[in-house]
């Protein structure tokens, strides 16, 4: 099939490359000529393991091309996939101006029947609104499809080529057949549904996963008080097939370009139809508080006095294997520390440039590796679970720190890693690993079932 993908951000680029890998002829379009130049010279403007190699192989096989010429790409394609950004507006709603602009450009370029697919995450009803816009600008026939995307940064290629399911929202049998045909090589689990339900599936899925994370983070917070271990609790829960083990890792809360934006957007969507999504509002609130638990632990250790301390931070990306820092907990944590007179030293294997672009270069000492960051610090906070950090020898780490204080925001280290060290170690929801805390646990009141 001949496919045009509009937008070469994460979703667009990965989808374009993967559709080419399936044997289709794909042309990826972006207004940003700088990005197109990078792509045409064999580079990749984002960090995603394996993407560069796959893109190169498909370019060499003449199945993949990059251009800024949207009308040309539309004319030569049967399927047009919209994958432009829908970033949040200050009130949490999705900004649809880019997608509307792209839809109008597509309408004006059309030269025959097309299937117009929306892969960007958009509020329920947006596909219909875009169809109306296009219909007013063209005499040609077209069908609309909602094709929500579920890929995760860092494992985007695997998620695209081996998805758990494909959701196709459509109101035309012809478009439904074409889309099923296109995705058949990927999975048998193809759900064909109406357009509004497909739009909702995306928000509901992300909101549910975010809920799992906030749930386990609250359980972790309780574990810290009652002397239970959240990793054991999550494992025990996860064996129940109705619960499942995924997205039950306690930490410093979710970040990234999807969960924070989509949870807030779904609260807004519900609000527009006079529904107060109380549960999801709590999920967002818990997530916001969770990142500050790192600070609370530092304050406890330093007797409330952060001013003048040196704190090392390992990890700036919102999760490992990505250079993405959008809504990364590290942003707010570091900002708080700097504003409270803490000297911050920080390092991330790949996300330092993006972090500096958002945060600025001032106020933080940027370091080249894990040990250099820790050198002379009064405490170390691990915020992203990069392998590079997990591999550090803790005895060596202890020898370079000014004080052996380690706040592990991602539960990277285990009891055996700490053997032979004197770390004051705080993780998330595992109080028994905190130095000396086992003995201090309070006796719990006997609570009768009421
Ligand atoms: C997410 C969805 O998984 C994907 O389906 C959707 O299309 C886009 O949003 P992504 O943002 O790339 O993908 O990352 P993901 O791996 O889902 O992690 C999101 C955040 O949750 C990260 O900050 C991660 O650290 C955190 N997380 C995840 C936890 O804190 N605990 C977990 O158990 C899982």
TrEMBL record:
Biochemical pathway: Nucleotide-sugar biosynthesis; UDP-alpha-D-glucuronate biosynthesis; UDP-alpha-D-glucuronate from UDP-alpha-D-glucose: step 1/1
Binding-site list for NAD(+): 30, 35, 86, 121, 153, 261, 326
Keywords, alphabetical: NAD, Oxidoreductase
Reaction(s) this enzyme catalyzes, per UniProt: UDP-alpha-D-glucose + 2 NAD(+) + H2O = UDP-alpha-D-glucuronate + 2 NADH + 3 H(+)
The keyword Oxidoreductase belongs to this UniProt entry's keyword annotation: yes
Coiled coil: none
EC number: 1.1.1.22
Domain UDP-glucose/GDP-mannose dehydrogenase C-terminal: 312-415
Residues the record lists as binding substrate: 150-153, 202, 247-251, 255, 319
GO BP field: polysaccharide biosynthetic process; UDP-glucuronate biosynthetic process
Superkingdom assignment: Bacteria
Enzyme class (EC, first level): oxidoreductase
GO terms assigned for molecular function: NAD binding; UDP-glucose 6-dehydrogenase activity
UniProt keyword Ligase present: no
Enzyme active site: 258 (nucleophile)
Similarity comment: family membership: Belongs to the UDP-glucose/GDP-mannose dehydrogenase family.
Protein's name in the database: UDP-glucose 6-dehydrogenase
Organism: Cohnella pontilimi
Classification lineage: Bacteria, Bacillati, Bacillota, Bacilli, Bacillales
């Amino acid at each position: 099939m001949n496919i045009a993908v509009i937008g070469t951000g994460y979703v667009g680029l990965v989808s374009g490359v993967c559709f080419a890998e399936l044997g289709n002829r794909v042309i990826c379009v972006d207004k940003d000529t700088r990005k197109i130049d990078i792509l045409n010279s064999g580079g990749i403007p984002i960090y995603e393991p394996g993407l560069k190699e796959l893109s190169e192989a498909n370019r060499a096989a003449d199945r993949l091309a990059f251009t800024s010429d949207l009308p040309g790409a539309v004319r030569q394609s049967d399927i047009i996939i919209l994958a432009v950004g829908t970033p949040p507006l200050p009130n949490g709603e999705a900004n649809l101006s880019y997608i509307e602009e792209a839809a109008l450009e597509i309408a004006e370029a059309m030269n025959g029947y097309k299937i117009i697919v929306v892969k960007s995450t958009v509020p329920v009803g947006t596909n219909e609104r875009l169809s109306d816009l296009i219909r007013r600008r063209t005499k040609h026939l077209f069908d609309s499809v909602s094709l929500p995307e579920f890929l995760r940064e860092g494992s985007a290629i695997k998620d695209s080529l081996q998805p758990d399911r494909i959701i196709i929202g459509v109101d035309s049998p012809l478009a439904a057949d074409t889309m099923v045909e296109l995705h058949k090589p990927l999975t048998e689990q193809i759900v064909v549904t109406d357009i509004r339900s497909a739009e909702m599936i995306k928000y509901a899925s992300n909101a549910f996963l975010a809920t799992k994370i906030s749930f386990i983070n609250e359980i972790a917070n309780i574990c810290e008080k009652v002397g239970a271990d959240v990793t054991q609790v999550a494992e025990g829960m996860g064996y129940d097939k109705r619960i499942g083990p995924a997205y039950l890792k306690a930490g410093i809360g979710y970040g990234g370009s999807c969960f924070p934006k989509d949870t807030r957007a779904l609260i807004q969507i519900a609000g527009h139809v006079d529904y107060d999504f109380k549960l999801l509002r709590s999920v967002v609130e818990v997530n916001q508080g969770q990142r500050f638990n790192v600070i609370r632990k530092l304050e406890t250790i330093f007797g409330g006095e952060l001013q003048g301390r040196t704190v090392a931070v390992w990890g700036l990306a919102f999760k490992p294997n990505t250079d993405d820092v959008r809504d990364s907990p590290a942003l707010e944590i570091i900002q708080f520390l700097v504003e409270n007179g803490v000297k911050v030293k920080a390092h991330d294997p790949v996300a330092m440039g993006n972090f500096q672009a958002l945060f600025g270069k001032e106020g933080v000492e940027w370091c080249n590796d894990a040990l250099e960051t820790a050198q002379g610090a009064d405490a170390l906070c691990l915020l992203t679970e990069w392998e590079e950090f997990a591999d550090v020898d803790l005895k060596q780490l202890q020898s370079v720190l000014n004080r052996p204080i380690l706040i592990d925001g991602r539960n990277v280290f285990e009891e055996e890693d700490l053997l032979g060290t004197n770390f004051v170690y705080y993780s998330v929801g595992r109080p028994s690993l905190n130095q000396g805390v086992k003995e201090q646990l309070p006796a719990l009141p006997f609570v009768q079932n009421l």
